[in-house]
Give the backbone structure.
Amino acid sequence: MTTSLRAFLLYFLRLGTLGFGGPIALAGHMQQDLVEQRGWISAQEYKEGLAFAQLAPGPLAAQLAIYLGWVRGQVLGATLVGIAFVAPSFLMVLVLSDLYVRFGGLPWMQGLFYGIGAAVIAIIARSVLKLVRMTLSRDQLLWILFAVSAVVTAWTESEIIWVFLVCGLVPMLLRGRQRAPATHALAFLPAAPGLATGLAGPASVGVLWKILAYFAGASLFVFGSGLAIVPFLYGGVVQQFHWLTERQFIDAVAVSMITPGPVVITVAFIGYLVAGLAGATLAAIGVFLPVYLITVLLARRFHRVAKNQQVKAFVDGVTAAATGAIAGAAVILGRRALIDVPTILIALVTLALLLVPKKIPEPLLILAAGIVGLVLKGMW
């Protein structure tokens, strides 16, 4: 069954507006809606898209959406679907960013994020559990790589790119000798004054270029879940450039959790705090443009590359390292967000509710945590 490109775009516009639950949930929505219910995408096309999104660097949900857009309408389809999927959450983040800049110092907003920050730690922990089940299984080598990455990230409080590369090369060298030369495995690595005003005042042109370059580089080391970018961003945004404080960074992650669409949209919030609307726009372009270009340029050759055992082994190792880095990031952020008994209890209750068979939507849990934070801070 075929459909018009307009109907296809309207679907992704709706998914980007109402799709909560993170990358795994969004990928599930696409499979159920486009393959099973509507029949707009074949099961084989969907499987190929999901494999491509796992193999290529970039956040899973956005990569899969752009790939399916390419299947439906080639370059034009990929372009329009990418915009339709990302734009709603980007606009929502702009509104939340402006409110945060205007009222972030007020007690009611501090109370709100007091509860939300604790709930976010639970959501990240649950995501680690889901990713562990999906990516590691009972593979002892991947568990070792996961543990090494988690410990290094938690210990150094930053994400070290060389750890990712080594974790990819180890299984590639040990398991990928049967087919194809190793070179294929590396194919995936390759203003107006008022508009650029952040928390620290107007940003220079140099800062704007740095925002664009930094977030573009960050997107190339996100495999699978968009949460993989969290530890990488922490090391750069908080420790290297000192653009945000640790509290502001946790709030940025929280904003990505309470908005629909791709989790990596948190970069727009960070960009806004640093350099206003211009910073938010450049950060979003930096993260999503490499994803778009990789999909458009490599989609045609994917069938041949996907069969390469060394590519699969390399990505398995990088994915294990990314999952470990997310676990390490949960430890780092947890030390900052879980500051007393109430926040620890909020996190534990949120995690318990996330793990029950009858799941409560994440936005409702975050809203409830925010209300609890307001009550505890006496701001309600």
Observations:
- The two ends are 52 Å apart (CA to CA).
- The chain has 15 helices and four strands.
- The chain has one domain: 5-376.
